[in-house]
Amino acid sequence: MRRSFKAVTTWILAALMGVGCWRGGSELLVILDRGVIPGRRGPSLHLADNPLAYWAVFAFFCAALLAAVGFTLFLAYVGWRQAMEHRRS
To answer: Where do the DSSP E strands lie in the chain?
Structure first.
């Protein structure tokens, strides 16, 4: 019972992270479409004003999203392994 609970918990965490990755990816598409990275506390970063800074920040956001997707897939794999171990025992 304990291993099954761990597997379900891991899958729930992976699903929540997957939703966050989906949301982040859609926000990246909006940023790419509009050409503006909105500033939360400061001024927004426009592609037309400073293209080098825009693409640097955009690349950083993409790298962070890819790391989150990788961790989500890793969590799903760990949950699957835990479920298979529970099935064998």
So the answer is: 36-37, 45-46
Q: Of 22, 21, 47, which Cα lies nearest the Cα of 33?
A: 47
The 10s digit of each residue's pLDDT in 41-64 is 888 989 999 999 999 999 999 999
Tell me the CA end-to-end span of the chain in Å, nearest whole number: 11
What mean pLDDT do residues 4-29 have? 92
> What is this structure's pTM?
0.83
Closest CA to 72 of 11, 7, 1: 11
Question: Could you give the C-alpha distances from 67 to 10, 11, 15, 77, in angstroms and in order?
Answer: 18, 18, 15, 15
